[in-house]
């Protein structure tokens, strides 16, 4: 007697295990797309953070060398202009020049004070480990990787801490932030397929928007006056020229000349009286 034929279900065994609904297929595809965008976002965030930190470090160096001398020059110019205005109180032109010179001196002093208070160490040289940690933190903590407003605020706070640690070349701090983030109870999630799909689609839109913004920020920073000055000094250094030292020497000469002006004016006045 022949054995009874057995009906085989079209989705048994391994096939049944891999079967996914259209929604699940769409979700899987969107997750792949999101992962690729997250990787691009992390790369660009790293580029932006590095550029910002390099410019901050360069600005600190520039202010130490040239900024202090410009501030001193403005202070001397203001004193001379005020002295001139006091000698002839009716001279409105001299009074306006004194006010303008004092305003410039005040702005220079304030700029120098801000640089001293807010800038990190002068040399910013991130290691490959530090860059890798920052990139990983950007992939996991970036605010644009969530559609929940409360979660976004939590991520913004974490990324702000990561950015500070990166500027200070503190790899251990970034590693600690990542460990705390990964072990937090807020990292446990779970929703149905439809809700997850909508969330991923919105996350993709947010990441794309942030990518456009980052590219704009990088371009703007790269075209700024500080970047242009940094490139000039780096290009000069490649030719063996220390442009910052040359700027400092020229300013020192101007400061010496400005300090000598009141004495020269006084001598000229005495000679005229004779």
Can you tell me about this structure?
This protein has 274 residues and is an all-alpha fold. It has 9 helices and no strands. The longest helix has 66 residues, at 22-87. The termini are far apart. The model is unreliable at 1-9 and 268-274 (pLDDT under 50).
Q: What's the overall geometry?
A: elongated
Estimated radius of gyration: 31 Å
Main sheet attributes: strand count, strand direction, barrel closure: none
Distance between the termini: 144 Å
Q: Report the total helices.
A: 9
The average pLDDT score comes to 84
Summarize the SSE layout with pairings:
Blueprint: H1 13-18, H2 22-87, H3 92-118, H4 128-141, H5 149-167, H6 171-183, H7 193-223, H8 225-238, H9 243-273
Helix pairs in contact: 2-3, 2-4, 2-7, 2-9, 4-5, 4-6, 5-6
Short description:
Helices cover 81% and strands 0% of the residues. It is an all-alpha fold. The N and C termini lie far apart (144 Å).
